[in-house]
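Workshop exercise sheet. Pairs work together: one partner reads the sequence aloud, the other fills in the structure field after running the prediction. Swap roles for the next sheet.
Pair: D.N. / O.F.
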Amino acid sequence: MGTDRRGERPGQRGGVVGDPDGDRPGRAFRAVALLQPLRGPGRSSMNTLSAPGRAGSRLFNAYIVGICLLLVFPLAVVALISFDTSSHIGFPPKGLHLEWYRSLPDNANFLLSFKNSLIVALASTAIAVLVAVPAAILVTRFRFRGRGVLYAMLMSSLTVPWIVYGVALLLLWTHLGLRLGLDTLIFGHAVIGAPYVLRTSVAVLADMPMSYERGARSLGAGPLRTFFTITLPLMMPGLKAGAAFAFIVSFVNIPVSLFVTTADNITVPVAVFNYMQYNFDPGVAAFSMVQLIIIALFIGFAVRAAKSGALA
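Structure field:
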């Protein structure tokens, strides 16, 4: 059998032995024909579920819906009670109006507690960030003996019940002769908020290649410039998420606040707790809904920051 000028045998033209005409479209058609029995009318048979599988899927979906309803139902009850026309808390509400929301600005105690909570949450979050960022860099960018022990100690406040921590703070301030006020409360909230910022910052730094920082240093950037131009911008998604959680933890905290606040420095949870000891009207539900909206905004901020970090 001879060869043509290109050195190919006649039976090899087209690239496959036994296909003398090099019929590639024909081969493609035959390949599709062989696969056709695997496909059903409009969907792949591999993606269909058997009857037990479909029943299990429906059961799982029903379970998820039930969990969501279980979580949302108490919030829905509080929301409805906040619009109740009755003078005492009850369910279902007798009617709906906005009077309890209109009366909130007239409650000086609630306004004071709201202002104090914002001050304490913002200040304690700022301190938590200032403490957590250097600590995160220390435990992720430097290798030294006892690094794991240091990280465990920095995260240890999460393992202590907050009410025990509040009693310990009260005893500490009393022993030192310090007067209770916003400054002592800010310190206490910063300690319980710092681990949240530290954890998210460590997670980001652990996945960040050190080659970025080494490249900046090799181009002449100093440690501070490298931190502010390379490390900090890359840390921002985790830092924002951790700061949002630290703010929420401070804003809703009651065990620590109960022990280290005074009548002039009460926070929102303490004000609600004190109010419900002597009053049982829907006004507390309206105030709680305002607090819930603020918390939801910060949770949304944290989720958005986490997603931006995942997509970066």
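Discussion prompt: Residues 107-310 form a domain with the MetI-like fold fold (CATH 1.10.3720.10). What would you look at next?
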